[in-house]
Structures are given as C-alpha cells and as structure tokens.
Amino acid sequence: MKIKILLRISSILIVALMIAGCSKSTPQAISDVNVALDPTILAFASPMAENLLTALSNDDIQAFRVNYDEAMMKATTEDAFQSLRTQLESQLGAYQSITPNQIQTGGGYINVFFTVNFEKGPLTMQLVLTETEPHQISGLWFK
User: What is this structure's pTM?
Assistant: First the structure.
C-alpha cells in the first residue's frame, strides 16, 4: 500500500517537474539562506499558493496560471494541468487547507514550502517565486 502511494506521488512529481522544467532559466531551487516565516513574503506567496490549489479544485486552468512567469505559462498545457489535477484528487482527495513551513531565498528566487492538507493526507508544495516585483511563479513542485 505504501509503495503504491509512493509510486503515485512520484507520478505527481514527474508532472510537476515537467511543468517547472520547461522554464528558460532554471531557478536556484534552494539556497542556504533560510528566512523566518517573513510576513512580507507570505503576504504575496500565500494567496498565490491558495489560488493554485483552489484553481485545481475548480478545474480552472486560467486561474491556475494567473501568477505564472512567461516560461511557466508556456509549459503548463491543458494536458499537464489535467494530469496534475486528476492525480492529486484521485490519490489524495479534496484540498482542505494550506500552511507555510519554510522560506528560502537566493539566486534571484524565493522558495516557499507549504504543507497542503488533503482528505487523505498531507503533501509538501514548493513554490518558486521571482524575487523582484511583480513576484511571479517560476516553479512548482509537489513532494
């Protein structure tokens, strides 16, 4: 049973990596600079994260892509969106809540890690944002 869940989560990661991997410039995924849960960063990052999850729940690709940078916009096809949506819902159930856990900065990017609670259990979501305004989504991973 655990192996089955791990295989399914791996599938989700593959789709997420396909979305993130198509960007022109690869974000510096993680730096050594940990930032406390800075309310200034969370003021823009948390609504973006919540929007992504709500858009997935509502099957709304336009809302899902609203804060994407150009490369992520091109990489997120309808098929990739539907695949991610189907896998998350079938394996984890409905989205319930989100909590920020950690922020890391470096290389021109802000990495915000969230615990996302679904009906069947939690998942970590990593949101990579551009450091400069307007902050845009440059990467998205589910782990």
Answer: 0.78
CATH number of 2-142: 3.10.450.590
User: Residue 118: how many CB atoms within 10 A of its CB?
Assistant: 17
Q: Of 85, 76, 82, give the one whose Cα is nearest residue 137.
A: 76
Return the closest-CA partner of residue 12 out of 137, 125, 129, 127.
125
Say which residues have a Cβ less than 8 Å from residue 70's Cβ, sequence separation at least 6: 24
- DSSP code of residue 30: -
Count how many Cα atoms sit within 13 Å of the Cα of residue 140 in the half-sphere of its side chain.
27
Query: What's the pLDDT tens digit per position in 62-72?
Result: 999 999 999 99
* Token pair belonging to 129: 């944002």
What gap in Å lies between CA 70 and CA 6, rounded to an integer? 31
Determine phi and psi for 141, rounding to 5 degrees: -135, 145
3-class DSSP state for residue 142?
strand
Q: Cβ contacts of residue 81 below 8 Å, gap of 6+?
A: 56, 61, 64
